Amino acid sequence: MKREPIYVETRIEADMEDLWNASQIPDQHEQWDLRFSSIIYQPKEQEEDPQDFTYKTNIGLGLSIEGWGRSKGTHNGKDGSRTSSLHFGTDQRISIITEGRGYWKYIRNDKDLTFLTQYDYQTRFGKVGALFDRFIFRPMIGWATALSFDVLKRWLEKGVTPKSQYIQFFVYWMLAFFFSFIWIYHGLIPKILFQHPEEVAMAESLLPDGVSAPNVVLVMGSGELLFGLSWWFVGRRKWLHLIQAWAIPILTLSAIVADPGTLTHPFSPLPYNSSLFLLSLIGLTISRDVPTAKTCKRKRKE
């Protein structure tokens, strides 16, 4: 199957010079672009010469990818549009990318600017590398490009620094994964799979006679499991934080009423659930206006 180049497009309400500088000056570019940890320009003999540079991308566990690049910016549009072409690559064997080419384009509209990129690259490791690129790396780097464009857009339009945006983004997702784990675990392990005696006993103390406590525990566990899974699929997670902020005090009070002795346990539900409640409020606060790759177009118009 033919390999599709990566394409990302967004519209930004900003001055052309501000957008150009944010994407062409290294100490500004490396602030918002997830694909680069540092960019260093090399000296030029003539002002009109292409700009050579080296880049570094930290990939975790103390590892990094270092490579080279050459860019050429032109102001050739009669309507004020600009273009910047790019040739890049790396000789490091741990990098799946060997060499690639692409461009950025800056287009003036009536009230804003269209900022877009398209690029493609060759891969290492033969067919294995091609499969890895197609199903894992290419979707990942395309997503990172789109997220970076949205961070740039918010920086230029709202003045929110890229660093604070990325802190908000990663805290938002860490909380989502954490809450998902909590609800899935408490629904699946003590309620559905093992029907822990304390779970059944607490249910029996709250239920009227004749109602099967094990069945109620099973239903509660299924609900918690589904709520935990919803953190992966619901787009507007602020509503999940809101539901959780209401549910946690009710569940805590129910546990205490069912067995007041839990207040003296080493892992009492009161301090534990209070921590979850506070994290829910934090999640509710930061879930507003989180950077996202979804605001960008990912397909070129035919």
UniProtKB/TrEMBL annotation:
**Transmembrane portions of the chain:** 166-185, 216-234, 239-258, 270-290
InterPro entries referenced in this protein's UniProt entry, alphabetically:
DoxX-like
Q: Which UniProt keywords apply?
A: Membrane, Transmembrane, Transmembrane helix
Q: Which domain of life is it from?
A: Bacteria
Protein's name according to its UniProt entry: DoxX-like family protein
